[in-house]
Amino acid sequence: MTAVPVGRRRDDEPVVRQVTEDLVLVEAGGRKVLAAAVCPHRGGRLKYGRVDGDRLRITCPLHHTTFDLTSGAPLGGGVRRPPGGRRPARPGRHRSRPLSRRRPVTTTPTGAASTATPPRAATARHDGVAPVPDAERTSSPADFGWIWPSAQFSFGTVVLGALPVVFGLGWWASASAIAVGVAVGTVLLAPLARFGVRTGTNDPVSSGAHFGVRGRVVGNVLTAVTALGFFAIAVWTGGTAVMVAGHRLLSTPTGPGALTVAMSVTAAAVALVAVRGHETLVRTYRITAVTGGAVLLGTVLVLAPDFDPGYGGSPLALDGVLHTWLLAATASATVPLSYATFQGDYTRFMPASVRPGRVARASGTSMFLSSLAALLTGAYVTTLFPVPDEPWLQGLTDAVPDWFAVAVVLFGFAGTLPQAGLCLYAAGLSANSVFWRSSRAAVTTVVALLAGAVLYLGAVVYDAMNAMSAFVTLLLTVVAPWAAVLFVGYGLHRGRYDAEALRSFTTGGGGRYWYAHGVNPRAATAFAAGSAVGILWVNNPLYVGPLTDLTGGVDLSLPASFTVSAVLYGVLCRVWPEPLLPPPAGAAR
Q: Angle, nearest 10°, between helix axes 416-432 and 402-414?
């Protein structure tokens, strides 16, 4: 059987060309045959199939089902061990049907009329934590142009832009603190986008290359807790917006009962989107990024007559403008960094041939611009409040005219879907790498029920969402050192990873990333030290660390924790080198 690498064939070798979305042209044995572009078994792309020119057969690259090109009949294959001994991804999920029940692939000699309608191109069915097959990695770095704006253009993010004004800064000081903070957070976030492209899996699993196969659990816990916290905040703010604006428009009830109903409807819609997975989320992002941007722009235009760029602020939260400005910049930096463990959920669907630097630039540019727009809108609106620290959604609803309150209701619901959906999907995917024998959809359903319980207890029973917000901010102090280890580790490993070795937890352990009983002590030490320093330098309503006295109350937890972990990990790897041998031949890179 002859492989057909693109651009490297001899004149007598078979070749497969994509001619339409549904058809490929196979040239082999002096004949030309049109065939369906996707395998009817699991949607593998036959453009990348292997062609036997002598017997006129093509083999699907995904699960190795072979078809006769003259008749389209399936001849064998399905889920089995391919040449070279590498098992296909998640054999438990992709169990083959008996040969007699498999559908044929449509084939038509060129020049003849098609006798059957080709199967419709399948969407990517792979949505677990196993490395995504090359045939299904069809996303593009440009998708970040939808992903990050859809998440940031929601009340859950926009409301955070109020913090610099609440801290007492004027408009220009608030705007500059937001711009600098978002830039710093983006610089720390964007390089991590390279992992999914290199490994084909999500970031917590990828982190096993540096933390160890068992040590990856640190990333799992951080992802799950951060995602559930931001899910609760997003649904709470969205549900509150629906309740408050609905009361103004239709005199509907307010209070715990009304908030419960509004949040329940919103959370159910979010769970439906997240459970359906990657393809549904990306389609949702394309819509909500545009509509969310339109609502933010509309908010700015509607309130423009009352806006005063000379707004001077109120009493400062800390002693001195500089200390307060640094506090606001640090708070703004946490917004991009809060997505540090989520990028691989999307970059794993991008082809391995895409340059990692291009992916990092696309993610960083989109994150910076969308975060800047969202937070500046939040600060802009807050300068119009009679009392800066009044409930933000109530202040927004009171500030806009009645006709625009309709947009607030719609945006409170629709704008919550992408951000909360992104969080819930990440939490489910992270949990799936722990409960890997179950399907991602089943695990995400269970996580959605848990998230609903957290939301109800935090927002209705204990009225503790402000404390939850402070807790999530505190948690980001631990995310920063985790990101620092990956940041430095990528450079030390020169961006080369063995994707199969990352999943040795499914086969009992061992392999390239096993280190010491599954944990890399260098990374664990650096992470623990950075986290300890960061926690001791926190200053928020929930907790004040003793090291803040050194900086006059300024919260430097984020830069301090990142720097300590990055430097210490680099030093430990120099003194006690990791095994940095190139991955085995044929391993994913």
A: 10
